Amino acid sequence: MTGALFVVSTPIGNLDDMTYRAVNTLKDCDMIACEDTRHTKILLDRYGISKPLISFFSYNQVIRTDKLVCDMAEGKKIALVSDAGTPGISDPGYVLIRAAIDTNIPVIPIPGPSAIISALVVSGKPTNKFIFEGFLSNKSSQRKKRLKELKDEKRTLVFYESPHRIAAFIKDVVDEMGDRDIVIVRELTKKFEEIQRNKASALLKHYTEHAPKGEFTVII
User: Fold this and answer.
1) Which fold has domain 4-110?
2) Phi and psi dihedrals of 182, rounded to 5?
3) Mean pLDDT, to the nearest integer, of 204-220?
């Protein structure tokens, strides 16, 4: 009898965003695979959950995937969580999900928070069609190349960016796509949540003068 892989969405900041079903799934599973065991333990403690944790991140995903697939083949129920939001998006969870599918192990989604959707719906940009580009290259030349390719795209564009690259990213947007109206969403659902809607040049000036902090979602 095979087990199952539960892909469990967790809060992107505010721990109150945890769903009842997600809590119950984590309580019922045999093991939780997570990016950072210390980070996940904070969430589990908040909801009184005590389960074995196994770290699963980019540097050990190959070794850990084999073990987890074997465990599920023997009947164990494993929950996959990321540090924040929905697993499998811009994190190594995809590897485990693909391996479970290839081994005919049931993969069950436990939906919940997603920074992509949360940022998009408050941006004021069209939501009927959009493209998620995730993190572009950390090299400006490659980043500019991709932005140039997207210049004439009619659908709304959604990107992730880190604080130490946000100013460079916006500059590349101005250089390759023009001084567009863009939306920058920072620290969603957290204490210092911030949503800025402005010209790219104005936001570039802001983040050049003020040290960026937190995680960013950019909508163009």
Assistant:
1) Cobalt-precorrin-4 Transmethylase; domain 1 (3.40.1010)
2) -130, 165
3) 94
